[in-house]
Amino acid sequence: MSVTLAHKGSSRSTDRLLLLVLLPVALISLGPVVRLLLEGVGVGSGLTTAHLTSVLTQDSTRTALLHSLVTAAGGTVISVLVGASFAFLVALTDVRAKAALVFCLMVPMMIPPQITALAWMQVTGPSSVLLKMLGLAPPLGSPQPLHSPAGIILLLGLQHASLVFLTLRAGLRMLPAELVEAARMSGAGPWRVWSQIVLPLSLPALIAGAAMAFVTALGNFGIPAMLGIPARYSTLPTLIYQRLTGLGPSVLSEVAVLSLLIAAVAILGVLASRLMLRRGGYGLVGFSGTPLALSLGRARAPVEVALWLFLAAILVLPLAALLATSLIPAYGVPLRLDTVTAKAWIEALFTQPVTRRAYANSLFLALAAALTLMAFSLPLAWLMERRPTVLSRALDALIDLPYALPGVVLSIACILAFMRVPFTELSLYGTIWIILLAYLARFFVVMLRPIQSSLAQLDPAMEEAAASVGAHLITRLRAIVLPLAAPSAAAGAILVFLTAVNELTVSALLWSSGTETLGVVIFNLEDSGETVMASALAMSIVCLIVALMAAVQAGARHFPKGIIPWQS
Amino acid sequence: MAELRFSNLSKQFEGSARPALAAVDASIASGEFIALLGPSGCGKTTLLRLTAGFEKPSAGRISLGGEVMADETHFVPAEAREIGIVFQSYALWPHKTVAQNVSFPLEVRRVSRAERDRRVAEALALTGLRDFAARMPAQLSGGQRQRVALARCLVFEPRAMLLDEPLANLDLALRSSMQEVFRAFHRRIGATMLYVTHDQGEALALADRIAVMESGRIRQFAAPEVLYREPADCFVAGFVGDGAVIPVRATGESMPDGTIIEVLGQRHAVRARCAAPSHVSIRPENVVIRDSGPLRGRVVGQTYLGGRFRLQVELGGETLVAYATRRARLGEALGLSIEDAWAFHDPESETLMARALAHA
Ligand SMILES: Nc1ncnc2c1ncn2[C@@H]1O[C@H](COP(=O)(O)OP(=O)(O)OP(=O)(O)O)[C@@H](O)[C@H]1O
Ligand SMILES: [Mg+2]
To answer: Is A465–B85 a contact, with Cβ atoms under 8 angstroms apart?
Structure first.
């Protein structure tokens, strides 16, 4: 009893830190989700399940659910095919230039989906500038082939292939090299080693990657919005968007149910994969670490050519088409030496107030999110690592939720939570702050995990040494922990910035006139037929993203292992 | 420099069955150089971390210079104790240069710039690091890092210095030269030092007094020569120094400074402080090889130590250790006599006996 008293007395500064850091984080990141759950059971309107039943029995809901399942499942199949092929080839064989291959495969993941969709639309279809240049354009009036479920599936698949790739490659790296060596010693050739040893053992990682691709595809808004809305093919996220933008906040309870439906499907997907994993798990014994390099023999050169051609097709082709479209004076004009112009670029970057505002908004939001999250994550990660409590462990387990849940779910949750800020008359709806809060909730984990991993590697004796020479908690955090965790904090901040600056799903539901983000503006420009300007804006964002990725890549030496997602 | 006192100090970690420290009582005079010696897991580091203020005691009290550092109601956090610690891993801050590492304690204390520079230079000179001031820790050898850790600790003139196996990561040659550094350094600044080691040579060489620990208790706390000549129990006798520990039968006959015991089938006069000893500690130098000796033993092993041989001699089911100047043959019979051995009463011998009786 007396001992606990002594504890309380001395760790007062830690307790204060706990209050200052843990509670706001828990409130902002988990509050909205809780609010949404409450809405689902009708707390706002007197504990009824009326909304629940009425929404769930509507035909539009069922169609959208079906479409969501079809596109997400189809996309997952493509993601698995592409991501797994790359992972097996890169992790197991002796193909050359692996780092460059991986970087190029990661770019589609970092490019926002609506830009992916926009770019691909410039590759196909009757008014493709690129096809016209090559004289391959289909006749005018023929339909855009991507405005279809197949188009959505294809792009979802390509967009999320890197998720499967990363998970599977991480799994393959854990594979004890001895297992493969034992099989080769028994006389098995590379093909047999792969099909009978590697594939069965890496199945858990493959399933986990597929589940991630499925959940992410389910929540994707940019691609079904750009490709599906023109074709009147709604998925759950686009249905929510159309309801909310069409009818306004009055349908909030209704869309809350829809977003809970998505969340439920996502959680079911994850649970199903867990179930499969539990059945198929093997205890792997042995040392991993020796990278496998099965020789492809004479097939190496053709395989390499195929990989690079594929990357060219999914990366260079759409971006070239996007660039071509951004350089013409008006949609429909072919790109020739005498028509090439930077008019759209100038218009998009300097003249149009709306695009300039969007740039300012997105940069502000991304920067504010990155800095705020950094400020909170450092002490929070420290608390979780050094002074774990029941509360901090719970937060640690739950903080993935806002990031893992589909973006529309979080948006609806934020609208519900901040439409009228609890205990005040304040409404954040329609201001830029609601977007910022949503970003904080969503990207917290992106910032927290790198810092956590670097603090876990930090010898606690570093801080004890500082304490023994007289440094107080705050001094220790500032002078010892902060500088040592700074590289990972920087990496985390850049990741948050990258993800936030071209975010669409969350802001699509939260923006209002004056608080447009880049993602929203590209979507709106394309929607209103300003394809050329949308392309120029999109292209400028792609340049920004690739430059930031390259900057992170260049600083890779300074970051602890496993922080940069496209490296590990 | 102040007196450090542990009273009834206990530490029970959550989730572990045995206490890491069990009712430790000890008092260390100001300026003393104390070694904590004991097998792995006996609680040396725990005692050090409690003293430094990184852990809270489960019971008992730590006081420094009469001031309570930790007890049931008070707990002075590490940063307010003014106790320096040198970690086994050195724990140098990798983002600071040698000079910045050393000056950090002074920055924390808001010492003025000029004063700081002076004291850092002094500490670096004292540890022979003057030429390395601008280096980063990663650019130093193990011994140099060790000295930076030492300089960082002494620069703020702590009330006591704790060193946790500071030489464990160094090679043998460097160890003995660093031992020299520590000794000179202790002479020079006269700080109270608490030095953890499991190398008894190091402890015997450096310390004014040694606390021998075993499973969370201090078994004996005495000067090195006392530990060696007059071990308090079987554990200390076996752990410190070479030789044999053999159960004896007391005769009850006393002598000046000793008693008569029966061991190896003979009566021997031994040094003792109690009338009824249970064991005798026979060091190699207590065994004299002499043809006229009353005991007969057989050589069962020998090692050349350089300058002399260490013989293992078996007699009556026990193995004694003796030194010889010439090589012996394995199996050779030797005449021995035992002189000046130390007999003591091991408190656990009774419980062992009682347990044996209970089982019989
Ligand atoms: N944080 C902890 N939690 C639980 N048990 C601990 C903790 N730290 C130490 N112990 C236990 O307390 C006992 C004493 O540990 P301590 O580190 O003090 O040993 P030591 O004498 O320093 O050993 P070594 O010579 O190996 O460093 C051990 O049994 C150890 O397992
Ligand atoms: Mg230890």
So the answer is: yes
Distance of CA A73 to the CA centre of its chain: 18
In whole angstroms, give the CA distance from residue B170 to residue B174.
6
CATH number, position A314 = 1.10.3720.10
For residue A166, pLDDT over 70 is answered with yes
Residues bordering ligand 2, an ion, CB closer than 5 Å = B 45
A285 vs B200, higher pLDDT: B200
Is the pLDDT at A4 greater than 50? The verdict is no
Cα B219 to middle of ligand 2, angstroms: 17
Residues A326 and A364 in one domain: no
pLDDT digits (tens, 9 = 90+) for A342-376: 777 887 788 888 888 888 888 899 899 989 988 88
Ligand having the closest approach to the CA of B11: 1
Which residues from chain A sit within 8 angstroms of residue B70, using beta carbons?
Answer: 6
Q: How far is CA A25 from CA A29, A334, A380, B78, in A?
A: 6, 52, 9, 29
Which chain A residue has the Cα nearest residue B158?
Answer: A469
What pLDDT, on a 0 to 100 scale, did the predictor assign at position A349? 80
Instruction: List CB contacts (< 8 A) between A464 and chain B.
Output: 52, 54, 78, 85, 87, 91
Nearest CA among B141, B7, B137, B133 for reference residue B68: B7
Looking at the predicted structure, is the pLDDT value of residue A1 above 50?
Answer: no
Nearest-Cα residue of chain A relative to residue B100 = A479
The partner residue sitting opposite B73, judged by closest CB among A6, A469, A475, is A6
Catalogue all structural domains in chain B, each as residue range(s) with its CATH number: 4-229 (3.40.50.300), 242-358 (2.40.50.140)
Quick check: is A18 in a domain?
Answer: no
| Residue with CA closest to ligand 1 atom 29 | B41
Residue-range definition of the domain harbouring residue A518: 354-404+441-563
The pLDDT assigned to B24 comes to: 93
Domain co-membership, A123 together with A230: yes
- Cα of B2 from ligand 2 centre, angstroms: 24
What parts of chain B have a pLDDT lower than 50?
Answer: 1
Identify any residues that bridge with B338 across adjacent strands, giving them in sequence order.
Answer: B287
B113-138, pLDDT tens digit by residue? 999 999 999 999 888 889 999 998 88
Please indicate, yes or no, if residue A120 is contained in any of the structural domains. Answer: yes
Q: For residue A480, what is the nearest residue in chain B, using CA coordinates?
A: B93
Q: Whose CA is nearest to atom 16 of ligand 1?
A: B43
Please report residues of B whose CB lies closer than 8 A to that of A5: 72-73
Task: Give B70's contacts (C-beta < 8 A, 6+ positions apart).
Answer: A6, B50, B53, B56, B57, B61, B62, B76
Q: Ligand 2 centre and the CA of B9: distance in Å?
A: 18
- How many angstroms is it from B164 CA to the middle of ligand 2? 7
Please report residues of A whose CB lies closer than 8 A to that of B89. Answer: 459, 461
Q: Is the CB of B41 under 6 A from ligand 1?
A: yes
Q: Is B20 in the pocket of ligand 1 (CB under 6 A)?
A: yes
Cross-chain residue pair A464–B104, CB shorter than 8 Å: no
Residue A212 located in a structural domain: yes
Q: Measured from the CB, is residue B40 less than 6 Å from ligand 1?
A: yes
Do the chains contact at B108 and A475, CB–CB below 8 Å?
yes
